[in-house]
Known about the structure:
By secondary structure, the chain is α/β, with parallel strands linked by helices. Helices cover 42% and strands 18% of the residues.
Amino acid sequence: MAGVLYLVATPIGNLDDITYRAVRVLREADLIACEDTRQTRKLLDRYEIQKPTISYHEHNEAERAVELASRMAAGEAIALVSDAGMPLVSDPGYRLVRAAIELGIPVQAVPGPSAALTALAASGLPTDSFRFGGFLPPKPGQRTKILEALANEQATLIFYEAPHRILEALEAIELALGPRPVVVARELTKIHEEYLRGTAAEVRAQLAARDAVRGEMTLLIGKATAPIPDDTPLEQAVDKLIDGGTPRMDAIKQVARQRGLSKREVYEAVVREK
């Protein structure tokens, strides 16, 4: 008889944030697959769960998925957990789920905490429509490309970001998306939980003033708004930004975004006037 795969959500900080069902499933599972067995052991010890664990992370996911699928096919019940939150959401697990489905093994998600939804609920930004983008690319060019592609998205944007990259990310948001509302949710459900609100530049200034920037970060960006009417000739608008210290191509990008035009249209207009 085939086993079952449970995708068990775990606390994102406060260990009290776990469901009765999640505790029961972890106690009944034959094996618990963990992103980091040491991290998961803290949770298991808290609830006196004595079950064997096995590592399952991005570096061994391909081979481990085959091994775990074989064990489920032999009848074992396996619970997959990540270090925090829902497995597969910006964490490993996709290969194992696909392997289970292809073998006809039931897959059951055991819902629970999510940093993205927790941050969205308390952000003060619109919640009727949102888009989760995982982690922003670490390379500046790729990050800017992603943000510019989302410039007209009529939804609250949600990303995860590492503390050592948050200042760069906020600077990129200001350049690519302008002064729209931004929220940085830090250390959610933990003792030092906080929400920093303002424009990207304002939130960046708050963080930059600190001796160090630490903690898990969830970054939210308000919806796109309609371009503000502006009759200033394009070349003058670009020159004004350049005079203020903005690089030429960045100035063209900003004006294009503000006017709802393509970069090429603005560039050609500037060249024509020059």
